[in-house]
UniProtKB/TrEMBL annotation:
Superkingdom of this protein's organism: Bacteria
Keyword check for Membrane: no
All residue ranges annotated as the Fido domain in the record: 100-252
Catalytic activity: L-threonyl-[protein] + ATP = 3-O-(5'-adenylyl)-L-threonyl-[protein] + diphosphate; L-tyrosyl-[protein] + ATP = O-(5'-adenylyl)-L-tyrosyl-[protein] + diphosphate
EC number of the protein: 2.7.7.108
Protein name (record): protein adenylyltransferase
InterPro entries to which the protein is assigned, alphabetical: Fido (IPR003812), Fido-like_dom_sf (IPR036597), VbhA-like (IPR033788)
Annotated keywords: ATP-binding, Nucleotide-binding, Nucleotidyltransferase, Transferase
Enzyme class of the recorded protein, top EC level: transferase
Length: 363
């Protein structure tokens, strides 16, 4: 979102507008976990809903009409999916009803992806792997397809029996981090697993008495997903072990209004991206959301996401080359060269030396 129209609503004194503003802001922000971006039309529709001009049902109908009249619009970048899932997430987050059961979890997936995925609400029947940037191309070991329902039932049963009584907030947050990371790692669904898990988790947190109407999920959805990945990955021979420390930091910001920095580069297993060059006196480290020119308007959403990853990996005036781009974004040499040329053309980066195989930095 280029100009965030929801923050003023989150700060609204009127509870209904505040809650809807939070729900929409979170719904749209969560699309980032799958590299998706919503349309401007969706944002305008959301504002109308927050202002009370239209209901969620009417917002859904408007979106369906919009894409029926424009069937080819944004078909290649899944914007239609992002828009439709966003309005459904916003509606679910605005509802008070919730039950802590495996069926509720499956029901959320069905509601979010009905008509989008043929397997909406269904447990996957095959094993999966996914290359992760934060794991340098490795994958988490997800739940076995033959044991998914049993594993899901067991995790819910254990959480239902757990008592939070007399625990400190540190202990509560640590337990919540373990619970949600294990639920996510089962990976019950073929697609849409993280978005479903996030919606379920937010609604569960509300039943535990937490007021989560802030912008942490909306603005750090990608960090949330990478933290879930790190909580479920071991490579002991290379000194990497699963850890919930990153999830705990995320939850402290979410639940306790703390202000810990949430940078994706700190989660990368190589540790390469943790080394941030100290800026010169007077040099301000640019925020990832302040890249100029506006990448959201100039580039395809997938390309924009690649730029954000690269910007996080090389903040300030850090120098990088084609091989760095290949590693961070996981693309081939030819595509990395084209990518760099495109960024130079639009003045997002500037060459420091050479071209193609040269060195660059962000403006």
């Amino acid at each position: 979102m280029n100009q965030d129209p929801f923050k003023e609503y989150i700060r609204e004194s009127e509870p209904d507008k505040r809650d809807k503003g939070y729900a929409w802001h979170t719904a749209i922000g969560l699309q980032a976990v799958d590299g998706l971006k919503t349309s401007e039309y969706l944002v305008h529709t959301a504002v109308r809903n927050i202002e009370g001009e239209i209901s969620f049902e009417e917002a859904n109908a408007l979106l369906y009409d919009y894409y029926e009249e424009n069937p080819a619009r944004n078909a290649s970048d899944r914007t239609e999916e992002a828009d439709k899932v966003s309005v459904r997430i916003a509606e679910l987050l605005s509802e008070k009803a919730f039950s802590f059961t495996p069926n509720q979890y499956l029901s959320i997936h069905r509601k979010l992806f009905n008509g989008i995925y043929p397997h909406a609400g269904c447990i996957r029947d095959y094993n999966i792997t996914k290359k992760e940037w934060v794991l340098d191309g490795a994958t988490v070991l997800y739940g076995s397809a033959t044991e998914l329902r049993a594993t899901l039932d067991y995790d819910f049963s254990e959480e239902r029996k757990f008592s939070y009584q007399n625990l400190s907030m540190d202990e509560i947050i640590r337990h919540l981090a373990v619970f949600i990371s294990k639920l996510w790692q089962i990976h019950v669904f073929e697609e849409g697993n993280t978005r479903t898990t996030a919606v379920f988790f937010i609604k569960y947190l509300k039943t535990l008495g937490f007021d989560v109407t802030n912008d942490i999920f909306a603005e750090n959805a990608w960090y949330f997903r990478n933290a879930l990945v790190r909580a479920n990955y071991n490579d002991l021979k290379n000194g990497t072990h699963e850890t919930t420390e990153f999830l705990e930091v995320f939850l402290r910001n979410l639940l306790l209004d703390e202000n810990h920095p949430l940078h994706n580069r700190t989660l990368h297993i190589s540790g390469t991206f943790k080394k941030v060059k100290k800026p010169d006196i007077g040099e301000l480290k640019p925020d990832i959301g302040e890249l100029k020119p506006d990448i959201g308007e100039l580039f395809h959403p997938k390309t924009a996401r690649h730029i954000l990853k690269l910007r996080e990996a090389f903040p300030g005036q850090e120098i990088f080359g084609r091989s760095d781009v290949m590693k961070v974004i996981d693309i081939k040499a030819s595509r990395a060269s084209e990518f760099l040329k495109e960024l130079v053309k639009h003045e997002v980066i500037v060459p420091v030396s050479g071209h193609g195989k040269g060195k660059y930095r962000f403006r």
